[in-house]
Write a structure and sequence with these properties.
It is a single chain. With 304 residues, this protein is an all-alpha fold. The chain is built from 13 helices and no strands.
Length: 304
């Protein structure tokens, strides 16, 4: 009996030591991977505070040789970037809210087996992922018939619904046990009350995940602004930054062609500074939804 107890104890100790070694290896690999992800971002920040001459002479480094805020002063000099930030924040918040309302109200009925013609409607939505009307018809529809040129809603309405996000939300709703809805039906609840009181409270991971996708789409939007926005006060952040970078490059090229001094123009550091300015809010916002992201994306992609 003692021999059996001793052998079991030895096996537990061996298993415990093996677990410690495996954990150490896993944590080491994860740490190395995190450093590989962090180093480029640190280099990006350092380069944004470096002078253009040192960048051309010494390349990119983890710490600036000569600290300067010239790139950031150039970006914030006119104050236009604050207007662009306001436009982007408004479109990101309002667009995400409206997109989630439309997505939920479309995805939930399509997830119910009792809804007629849900297969046909689903195919119609899927068809839009394969084919679209083309650039010219879309441009004419938005600018001429909907009259949305130089209107802030042109940054929201054309991309209000993303079919891929809708299908993910639909699959997430299908993963919820039907017994919850059936119990609510027995208690006399209608479909709208079941959606708001039963389904949505247990769908927080899926809603947070899809909301993040929509928010990133609105935050990084520039293409519709290029097509439909001429008023500089309505430029979103990404389009304003793109125009600023292009103007700096144009000035630098003209200076080079005319033989003037051009090396000091902060074109490379501005590129890095604009990346810091545009992704900063996203980095601070992402940790708040990260805990929902993994569970939401896995359930929405595997179930159904």
């Amino acid at each position: 009996m003692r021999d059996m107890t001793g052998s079991i104890t030895k096996k537990k100790k061996k298993k415990s030591s093996d677990t410690v070694i495996m954990d150490a290896i896993v944590y080491t690999l994860i740490t190395i991977f995190c450093l590989f992800c962090l180093i480029p971002f640190m280099m990006l920040i350092a380069t944004s505070f470096e002078t253009e001459v040192n960048i051309l002479r010494e390349g990119y480094k983890l710490w600036p040789s000569k600290f300067t805020t010239e790139a950031y002063r150039t970006i914030f000099k006119t104050g236009q970037i604050f207007k662009a930030y306001g436009v982007t924040i408004f479109t990101s918040i309002a667009g995400t809210l409206l997109s989630m309302v439309v997505t939920v109200l479309l995805a939930y009925p399509l997830s119910l087996k009792k809804v007629k013609y849900r297969t046909q409607v689903t195919f119609f939505i899927y068809f839009t992922m394969l084919f679209n009307g083309g650039l010219v018809p879309t441009y004419l529809l938005i600018s001429k018939y909907l009259n949305l040129r130089d209107n802030i809603w042109v940054l929201i309405i054309p991309i209000l619904l993303n079919p891929w996000n809708m299908f993910m939300m639909k699959n997430f709703f299908r993963s919820i046990p039907e017994e919850l809805s059936e119990a609510a039906y027995i208690d006399g609840a209608n479909d709208l009350k079941i959606l708001t009181k039963v389904i949505l409270p247990v769908s927080v991971p899926g809603i947070a995940t899809i909301s993040l996708f929509y928010a990133l789409g609105y935050w990084n939007q520039w293409y519709n602004a290029m097509l439909y926005i001429d008023d500089k006060s309505l430029y979103p952040l990404q389009y304003y930054i793109m125009n600023l970078t292009r103007s700096i490059d144009s000035i630098k090229e003209m200076a080079r062609m005319t033989g003037q001094a051009f090396a000091s123009l902060p074109s490379n550091s501005i590129r890095m500074a604009t990346a810091v300015v545009t992704i900063g809010p996203v980095i601070f916002f992402y940790p708040f939804v990260q805990k929902y992201f993994t569970s939401g994306i896995m359930v929405g992609s595997i179930k159904g």
